[in-house]
C-alpha cells in the first residue's frame, strides 16, 4: 500500500532498512543469545542520525516527527525487535523532556539524546505498581535546593545502559496519583545504582534492570514540569510513545511474514512448493492483510500526533493494541508455516514470536489499552 | 588536505551481460551502484578529511544517470561532486577515460591526493587509476591497504602484496588505488542524505574541459575489443579410488596414455 510518504520519510525508511538488513540482521541471533547490549549497532543508528528524528532542529535533531520515529522503529524491528527497542526506549525516555522540559532542561539534555551520544530510559514501573501507576512507592523529598529519592523501579528498559533517566516518584503520598512528580536523573548520581538484569523470553538484546535509589540527591532543577504532574507527564508521554511500540510490533510482524513467505516458496512437500497450497496461501494472505491494517492505523495515528491533534490517547491505544495483537498472531503463524523448523533456534522464526509477546504487555498491557479506549468512548458518548 | 576521489557507476551484479554485437556492457534492467571498490576510496577520503581537515571532491565520468552515484558519495560526507558527461566521451577505453578524468582533475586546480578503487567490478581492468597518475605525471601507489602517515608533503602507506605488504613512502600529490582491507565504508547519515539530495553537482562537458579531440571518446581509444566471451568452466578431473597399489598402477597407465596420446 502506498502511504504517500514524503521524500524525507522515504529517506528515513530506506536508511533504517539499510541498517536493519546490512548491520542488524547478521548479528540479531548473536545478541539474542548473549544478551549483550548492542552498543556497536546503537552507534551505527546514532551516526545515521536516527535518534534525532523526533527532536526539533534547535536541539540538534532533524524535525519533530512521530511518524519518522515509527517508520524507523518498524524497519529496525523487522530485523531485530530487541535491538529496535533499545532505540525506541530511548525515545520513550526522551519524550518527557521534549514535552514537559523547560528551555534549560531541553538545552542541557536533548542535544546529546538527539545525536545518540547518550541514550535515555523511562522509569515508572515498580514491583507493586505496574498497570496501577498510582501505587508507586518511590519517594522524592524536597530539602532546600535538592530532592532526595528513595525507592526501587523495576523492569526498566535500557536500565543500567542509559545515561539519562526520567523517573516518577511521589512528592506527596497523601494525594495519590496527583502526588507524583517526574525527575531527570543522570547515571552516576550518588545513591543511584542498578539491580539485577532480567533474563527475558524475548527482546533479549535489550537490557532490563532495576533502578535503585538510596538517598539519591538530585538538584531541584531536575524536576520536570511542576510537583504533582508526574502522572500527567506519564500519560502524555505514553500517548505519543505508544505508536512507537505499535511500530515495533508491526516491524516484528512484517519480519516474520518476510521469513514465512520466502520459506513457503522454497519448501517442497508432496512434490510441490508449500506456497501452492491454499491452506498456506490463506494464512499468508491473512497475515499480510492484518499487517497492512496495523500499519494504516499506526501511520494515521502518528500523523495525527504530528499535526498537533489533541486527545490522541484513544487512537494511540488502538494502534498499540491492534498492532501488538497482530504481531503475536502473525509471528505464531509464521512459526506454524515453518513447521518443525519454525520451532528450532537455528531458524529465525521462533525469535520473532518471542520478541512479539512483550508488545502486548509493556507501555500499558493490552487490557489497559482497552480500558483507555472504552473510557474515552464512554466519555465521548456523554458529550 | 585536498582530496579527489574518482568513482564509476557499475551494474549491481557479478554476472554482467555483454551485447554480442557491440561488445559493450548491457546496462538495461540492471540496478546501478557505485563500484564496490570505489566505496573504500570514498570512505578513506572522508576519514582523511576528518583526520587532517581539507576538502573532498568526487568525480565520475559516465552517462547522466551517474549523478545518482555522485549523490550517494555526497551522502557519505564528500563535499563536492563533478559529473564528467558528454557524448564526445562515449566509447572511451581505459586510456581515453584516464585522459579525460585527468583533464577534469587538472581543471579542479591544486590537490594533494587522488583516490581510486583498485579496479571496477564490471571491467576488472585496474587500469584507469594508474592511467590517471600517468596523465597527471604524479606518483602512484596501487593496492593500498593502510594510510599510515601524511606530513611534510610525504605520505607513508602499506601496499598489499600476495604475501605480506610493502611500506611505501611517496611525495604528494600522488594517486592511490585502495583495496577493501583499508576500511569499512560507513552508511550515509540522514543529514548527509538530505544534503546530497539538494546539492548542486557540477556538469563538465568537452566544452568545459577543452581536451584534445583526438584523445577522447572512441577516437582516443586505442583498445579494440575483438570478441568478448565467457571462458568455458573447468570440468572436474578424474578421481581415482581404491587401494594405494591399485590406484598407483592406474595412475601410471593414465599418465602413459596421456604422454603417448
Strand content of chain A: 15-25%
Query: Number of helix segments of chain B?
Result: 7
Structural class of chain A: alpha+beta
Q: How much is the average pLDDT of chain B?
A: 91
Most extensive interface, chain pair and sizes: A-B, 17 and 9 residues
Instruction: Tell me, briefly, the overall form of chain B.
Output: globular
Helix-residue proportion of chain A: 40-55%
Computed Rg of chain A: 21 Å
Task: Give a description of the structure.
The complex is a heterodimer of chains A (383) and B (261). Chain A is of the alpha+beta class and 383 residues long. Chain A has eleven helices and ten strands. The model of chain A has no long low-confidence stretch (mean pLDDT 96). Chain B has 261 residues and is α/β, with parallel strands linked by helices. Helix content of chain B is 31%, strand content 26%. In chain B, the strands form three sheets. In chain B, strands 11-10-9-12-8-1-6-7-13 form a nine-stranded mixed beta sheet, with helices on both faces. Chain B is globular and about 75 Å long. The mean pLDDT of chain B is 91. Chains A and B meet through α1 and α3 of A and α5 of B.
Amino acid at each position: 500500500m502506498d502511504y504517500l510518504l514524503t521524500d524525507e520519510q522515504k529517506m528515513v525508511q530506506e536508511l533504517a532498512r539499510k541498517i536493519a538488513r546490512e548491520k542488524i540482521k547478521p548479528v540479531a541471533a548473536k545478541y539474542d543469545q548473549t544478551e549483550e547490549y548492542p552498543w556497536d549497532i546503537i552507534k551505527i543508528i546514532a551516526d545515521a542520525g536516527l535518534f534525532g528524528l523526533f527532536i526539533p532542529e534547535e536541539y540538534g535533531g532533524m524535525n519533530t516527527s512521530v511518524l519518522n520515529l515509527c517508520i524507523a522503529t518498524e524497519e529496525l524491528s523487522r530485523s531485530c525487535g530487541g535491538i529496535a527497542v533499545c532505540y525506541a526506549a530511548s525515545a520513550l525516555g526522551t519524550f518527557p523532556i521534549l514535552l514537559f522540559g523547560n528551555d534549560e532542561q531541553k538545552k542541557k539534555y536533548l542535544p546529546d539524546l538527539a545525536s545518540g551520544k547518550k541514550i535515555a530510559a523511562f522509569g515508572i514501573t515498580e514491583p507493586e505498581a505496574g498497570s496501577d501507576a498510582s501505587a508507586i512507592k518511590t519517594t522524592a523529598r524536597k530539602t532546600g535546593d535538592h530532592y532526595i529519592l528513595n525507592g526501587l523501579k523495576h523492569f526498566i528498559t535500557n536500565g543500567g545502559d542509559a545515561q539519562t533517566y526520567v523517573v516518577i516518584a511521589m512528592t506527596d503520598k497523601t494525594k495519590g496519583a496527583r502526588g507524583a512528580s517526574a525527575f531527570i536523573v543522570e547515571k552516576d548520581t550518588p545513591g543511584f545504582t542498578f539491580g539485577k538484569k532480567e533474563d527475558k523470553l524475548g527482546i533479549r538484546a535489550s537490557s532490563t534492570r532495576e533502578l535503585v535509589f538510596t538517598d539519591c540527591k538530585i538538584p531541584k532543577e531536575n524536576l520536570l514540569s511542576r510537583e504533582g504532574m508526574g502522572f500527567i507527564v506519564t500519560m502524555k508521554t505514553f500517548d505519543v510513545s505508544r505508536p512507537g511500540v505499535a511500530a515495533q510490533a508491526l516491524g516484528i510482524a512484517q519480519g516474520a511474514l518476510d521469513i514465512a513467505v520466502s520459506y513457503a516458496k522454497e519448501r517442497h512437500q508432496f512434490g510441490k512448493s508449500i506456497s501452492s497450497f491454499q491452506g498456506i496461501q490463506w494464512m499468508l494472505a491473512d497475515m499480510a492483510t492484518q499487517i497492512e491494517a496495523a500499519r494504516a492505523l499506526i501511520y494515521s495515528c502518528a500523523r495525527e500526533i504530528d499535526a498537533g491533534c489533541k486527545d490522541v490517547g484513544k487512537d494511540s491505544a488502538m494502534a498499540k493494541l491492534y498492532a501488538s495483537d497482530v504481531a503475536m498472531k502473525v509471528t505464531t503463524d509464521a512459526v506454524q508455516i515453518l513447521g518443525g523448523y519454525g520451532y528450532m533456534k537455528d531458524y529465525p522464526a521462533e525469535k520473532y514470536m518471542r520478541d512479539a509477546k512483550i508488545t502486548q504487555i509493556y507501555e500499558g498491557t493490552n487490557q489497559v489499552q482497552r480500558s483507555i479506549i472504552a473510557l474515552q468512548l464512554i466519555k465521548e458518548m456523554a458529550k | 588536505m585536498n582530496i579527489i576521489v574518482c568513482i564509476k557507476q557499475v551494474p549491481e551484479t557479478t554476472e554482467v551481460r555483454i551485447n554480442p554485437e557491440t561488445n559493450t556492457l548491457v546496462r538495461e534492467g540492471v540496478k546501478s551502484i557505485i563500484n564496490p571498490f570505489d566505496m573504500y576510496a570514498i570512505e578513506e577520503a572522508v576519514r582523511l578529511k576528518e583526520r587532517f581537515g581539507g576538502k573532498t571532491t568526487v568525480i565520475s565520468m559516465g552517462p547522466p544517470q551517474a549523478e545518482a552515484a555522485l549523490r550517494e558519495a555526497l551522502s557519505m560526507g564528500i563535499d563536492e561532486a563533478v559529473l564528467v558527461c558528454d557524448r564526445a566521451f562515449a566509447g572511451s577505453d581505459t586510456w581515453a577515460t584516464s585522459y579525460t578524468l585527468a583533464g577534469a582533475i587538472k581543471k579542479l586546480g591544486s590537490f594533494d591526493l587522488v583516490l581510486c578503487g583498485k579496479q571496477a567490478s564490471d571491467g576488472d581492468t585496474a587500469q584507469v587509476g594508474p592511467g590517471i597518475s600517468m596523465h597527471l605525471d604524479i606518483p602512484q601507489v596501487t593496492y593500498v591497504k593502510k594510510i599510515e602517515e601524511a606530513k611534510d608533503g610525504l605520505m607513508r602507506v602499506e601496499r598489499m602484496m600476495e604475501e605480506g605488504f610493502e611500506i611505501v613512502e611517496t611525495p604528494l600529490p600522488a594517486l592511490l588505488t585502495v583495496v577493501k582491507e583499508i576500511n569499512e565504508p560507513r552508511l550515509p547519515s540522514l543529514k548527509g542524505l538530505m544534503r546530497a539530495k539538494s546539492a548542486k553537482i557540477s556538469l563538465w562537458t568537452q566544452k568545459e574541459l577543452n581536451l584534445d579531440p583526438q584523445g577522447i571518446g572512441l577516437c582516443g581509444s586505442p583498445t579494440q575489443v575483438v570478441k568478448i566471451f565467457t571462458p568455458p568452466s573447468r570440468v572436474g578431473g578424474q578421481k581415482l579410488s581404491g587401494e594405494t597399489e591399485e590406484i598407483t598402477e592406474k595412475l601410471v597407465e593414465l599418465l602413459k596414455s596421456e604422454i603417448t596420446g
